[in-house]
């Protein structure tokens, strides 16, 4: 099941997926850097504690950094991350958006709910492109996660 809320460059992106494995397995796929690199991007660094750093690299052109806000294994992960990776490469602190991932045990596996918010507070020059890019990105990456969890689970 795929649901994506993309109401006219809203403040948030919402997505939901069903995965055929328990929440503990999905948690590892989300938070273990080696696992995350197998379905999302090319490399990941995750210091899994409030205040810990995250860094996700996608090929040679996109490097996103952030900070862990909340960790509740195996059900909730919240982090803020760069909304404009171009600003980060120019040495400017980029604006951030907030990602909240919730995992619920359901019959047959796990329901993953993702909300990325904060687009409304972004500078107008990047708001639309950041929202569009993240909408496309989350659709692709969460589809990869469903496939990965089903195969590796």
Oligomer: single chain
Structural category is alpha+beta
The helix content is 25-40%
Q: What count of domains describes the coordinates?
A: 1
Q: Enumerate the strands of the largest sheet in spatial order, edge to edge or round the barrel.
A: 1-2-8-7-6-5-4-3
Distance between the termini: 18 Å
Overall strand count: 8
Low-confidence stretches: 1-8
Largest sheet: 8 strands, antiparallel
CATH fold description: Alpha-D-Glucose-1,6-Bisphosphate, Chain A, domain 4
Overall, the morphology is globular
Per CATH, which architecture?
2-Layer Sandwich
Determine the strand fraction and express it as a percent band: 35-45%
Mean pLDDT: 88
Brief summary of the model shown:
With 153 residues, this protein is of the alpha+beta class.
């Amino acid at each position: 099941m795929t649901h994506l809320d993309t109401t006219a460059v809203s403040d948030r992106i919402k997505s939901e997926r069903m995965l055929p494995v328990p929440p503990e397995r999905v948690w590892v796929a989300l938070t273990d850097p080696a696992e995350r690199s197998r379905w999302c991007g090319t490399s990941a660094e995750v210091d899994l504690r409030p205040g810990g750093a995250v860094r996700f690299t996608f090929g040679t052109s996109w490097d996103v950094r952030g900070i862990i806000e909340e960790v509740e294994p195996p059900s909730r992960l919240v982090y803020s991350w760069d909304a404009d990776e171009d600003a980060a490469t120019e040495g400017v602190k980029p604006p951030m958006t907030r990602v909240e991932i919730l995992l619920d045990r359901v019959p047959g596996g796990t329901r993953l709910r993702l909300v990325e918010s904060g687009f409304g507070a972004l500078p107008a020059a990047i708001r639309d492109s950041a929202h569009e890019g993240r909408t496309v990105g989350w659709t692709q990456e969460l589809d990869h996660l469903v496939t990965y969890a089903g195969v590796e689970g």
